[in-house]
Amino acid sequence: MVRKKIIAGNWKMNKTQQQAKQLIEEICIAVKGSTSDIVICTPFTNLGLAVQLTKNTNISVGAQNMHFEDSGAFTGEVSAEMLTEIGAEYVIIGHSERRQYFGETDETVNKKVITALSKGLIPIVCCGESLEQRENGITNEVVRTQIKIAFNSINVDLAKKVIIAYEPIWAIGTGKTATCEQANEVCSAIRSVIHELYDNDTATACRIQYGGSMNAGNAAQLLSMSDIDGGLIGGASLKAADFAVITNYKP
Ligand code: PEP
Q1: What is the distance in angstroms between the CA of the first residue and the CA of the last residue of the chain?
Q2: Do 39 and 9 touch, CB atoms closer than 8 A?
Q3: Catalytic residue flag (residue 195)
Q4: 80 domain residue, yes or no
Q5: pLDDT tens, residue order, the chain (251 aa)
Q6: Under 8 Å CB-to-CB from 40, ≥6 apart: which residues?
Q7: Phi and psi for 130 in degrees, rounded to 5?
Q8: Are 15 and 44 in contact (CB under 8 A)?
Q9: 92, β-bridge pairs
Q10: Ligand 1 binding pocket mutation candidate from 12, 13, 91, 210 (most atoms within 8 A of CB)
């Protein structure tokens, strides 16, 4: 089965409205010929603008986080419905920076995945090991546990919609990329977990991205691997030309 690649840009806490406008306009032109699904995950403050500027293009818009409750006394938080209302279609859930700095756990990730799917948002669920965990030889166990908990109570039809991003923490924003073999091995292990939790069809259809210093220079090699179905791109998504090299990859 040929899985369509999905390339998502994670802008993190970068770009004012004015800066975002310029970057989105450049991206719209640069990625026109892509055959991949393309998502830009901007800060909340730029989502409305991003939706407006990407109308009638091949680019979808995503958020970088959301709360699992529908509404209430959660100062500073944003709900799934607020995101769909503004036109966002995707949401990154459980990014390692959210886990590290904002107390996200496998359990809150699961709650958010359930809520996102129930509101029609496509979750991009992040998982990945620390350097210490890799050095201790427990990468697959760590990632298996993260995935099993993230998919808890998700039925097979909804599970098919979820995008998984394998992001080794030691490779994010560090310039250190996992080798193609390392990345592919873990993506393949993740696919096996999906097979165990669901069935062969779901595992075969599941799209698994690699993230961690993917850039214009190394993307083609990573994206050519059998179990890597796209990329979650941080730094390189902030430069239209670099992002376009990645989105315009053709097998
Ligand atoms: C990310 O933020 O998900 C990421 C992979 O960042 P970078 O590409 O900068 O390593």
Answers
A1: 14
A2: yes
A3: no
A4: yes
A5: 789 999 999 999 999 999 999 999 999 999 999 999 999 999 999 999 999 999 999 999 999 999 999 999 999 999 999 999 999 999 999 999 999 999 999 999 999 999 999 999 999 999 999 999 999 999 999 999 999 999 999 999 999 999 999 999 999 989 888 899 999 999 999 999 999 999 999 999 999 999 999 999 999 999 999 999 999 999 999 999 999 999 999 98
A6: 8, 9, 11, 24, 27, 50, 54, 59, 60, 61, 62, 237
A7: -80, 170
A8: no
A9: 124
A10: 12
**Angle, to 10 degrees, between the axis of helix 180-197 and the axis of helix 139-150?**
40
209 inside domain = yes
- Any domain includes 181: yes
Domain holding 212: CATH number?
3.20.20.70
Among residues 67, 95, 97, 129, which one is catalytic?
Answer: 95
Distance in Å, CA 162 to ligand 1 centroid: 19
Dist CA 113 CA 46 (whole Å): 23
Residue 123 forms part of a structural domain:
yes
Taking the CA of residue 175 as reference, the ligand 1 atom at the shortest distance is 10
Q: Would you call 67 a catalytic residue per the annotation?
A: no
Q: Give CA–CA dist 61/49, Å, rounded.
A: 10
Number of domains in the chain: 1
Pick the atom of ligand 1 nearest to 233's CA.
Answer: 8
Domain with 40, as residue range(s), is 6-68+76-247
Q: Give, using CA atoms, the residue closest to atom 6 of ligand 1.
A: 234
Question: Which residues form ligand 1's pocket by a CB distance below 6 Å?
Answer: 10, 12, 167, 172-173, 211-214, 232-236
